[in-house]
Amino acid sequence: MNPAIREVARRTAAAIRGVCVVVCACVIATLTPLGIAHAEPPQGAIVGWGDQVVGVDLSGGFVAVAAAGYHSLGLKADGSIVAWGCGMVECGEQGGCWCAAQADVPAPNAGFVGVAAGGHSLGLKADGSIVAWGCENPTYNYGQCNVPSPNTGFVAIAAGGGHSLALKADGSIVAWGYNNYGQTNIPAPNSGFVAIAAGVSHTLGLKADGSIVAWGYNAYGQTNMPAPNSGFVAVAAGRYHSLGLKADGSIVAWGYNWAGQTDVPAPNTGFVGVAAGLYHSLGLKADGSVVAWGYNDYGQTDVPAPNTGFVGVTARGNHSLGLKADGSIVAWGYDYHGEISVPAPNTGFVGVAAGDFYSLGLKADGSIVAWGDNSFGQTNPPPGGPNSGFVGVAAGGYHNLGLKGDGSIVGWGYNYSGQTNVPAPNTGFVSVAAGAFHSLGLKADGSIVAWACASFDYGQCNVPVPNADFIAVAAGGYHSLGLKGDGSIVAWGCGNPLLNSGQCNVPVPNTGFVGVAGGGEHSLALKADGAIVAWGANYYGQTNVPAPNTGFVAVAAGENHSLAIRRVTGDADGDGDVDWADFAAFVEYLLGPSDDPQLPGWRFFDVDMDDDMDLRDLARWQNAFTGH
Predict the structure, then answer these.
(1) pTM given for the model
(2) For an engineered disulfide with 68, which of 117, 243, 499, 530 has Cβ 3.0 to 4.6 Å away?
């Protein structure tokens, strides 16, 4: 360690100790050296993505938002657009689906001052011109991406299902594209407008006097303005619902309410912007945060509060499980079969696994608790002996694998393909993984045993040679992944073209990985530097890793969504917060005897996340604890 940094650290520690003596002598004990060794995994927050409501870091930096049926757009203060989600899901006649290009922002991604999302996407440039994209499919191309000439002088944009709107500086509206319900027929007088919004087939225009004019499709009352029609400052339109932002910061919502998209969450105050998707709504707060409500599939990416203290995550199908440091399990998402209803007592857990419609929890005493769907006996106690001695657990589509402390595997549940029949010799295993209908076991010698592929054989049981040096395994729906000791990943099992979304094509450079997870048709890998690499199917944005892509310590993949635990920067003792104890460990590290910046735990002190520990990190710590 640089001597100068050590000296500054010493002085800072002494100064802060002095402050603490005067202000809060009761916490002096927390300043004793604590070291940096972790008896347990570091804790952090879970970031979930893969659905239209949540998909990127929405904590700040945005100045505008837009949402459509399957994709969302966020405008950053720097003039760039962040896009996430799928756009319109399109399927071919021979099977297989893919995402349209509504979330692919054309280059150069700069100079934007407005965004709009519908069945296609629109971006307004600072020079008054409009960029349109996402109309490549001729079946859904009604000319909505063909901006009328002259493409200049525009001050606002809106995108509907198949039509587009643009507001001119003179207060008139230009409309083009699909007109089956008169949504591009602007009511007279076409003047005095200050804002516009487009639903799938209806249109809203905000007048300078604060009133809203609505026209087009009205089957659900989406063009029937609630009284009083005054005091509005912004408008937004979903598929069949409408939103109006009042000058007092409240939102008025009307029209179709199938998914609660017109039920504005409390407190209905402090909003400065609104946006609407097909069946969901977004509100931008004055503090730069985003509030989302309405349709969210099954909520599998909405982590329950408080989103702290997690040490493990897992996902499958449409639900998610998070393991807390206190031994409790938090479950969220789809719950038709009770798969997120954790049995009491919810304590003492050390591991979790998620099947398609059920869940497993491993207790510290070596027993396994199972709940949810039991159609194939998958939530019955493990067979063949006492429910004890387990050290690991995995859940597939409808079958389970339990790893015993003696290195043997117990399988139970659905066995159509023989996925619970562990091949002999059933010894020497150190890890297990389960796919939809196949099973994987990692041996202590670094080899992988794969079985149960006779019925659905896409190559997922054909471990590539050399079958050696593996340190971790993961199973997706019908593909397999193995992590090598050299940090590379081997993927196999994508032989069915209808199920091949590229999840077996490991991106280059294939090096530096420390963790791996497999989803339905996508794969995730964790880098040693805390970044995540994702590839494969992206129908729901499940491979769009939220920014900033750094600081992650664990990954998990469901059918169409992804989860990761992000470390709390500065959380040296791994308890999920940053406090005096962490600062004590930080100072102890700086004053320690070693000059090796790569010692275990050093990244928890890299406060500014620039991949080193220096005076800038120390300065941030000092500011956090002294205010200067």
Answers:
(1) 0.55
(2) 117
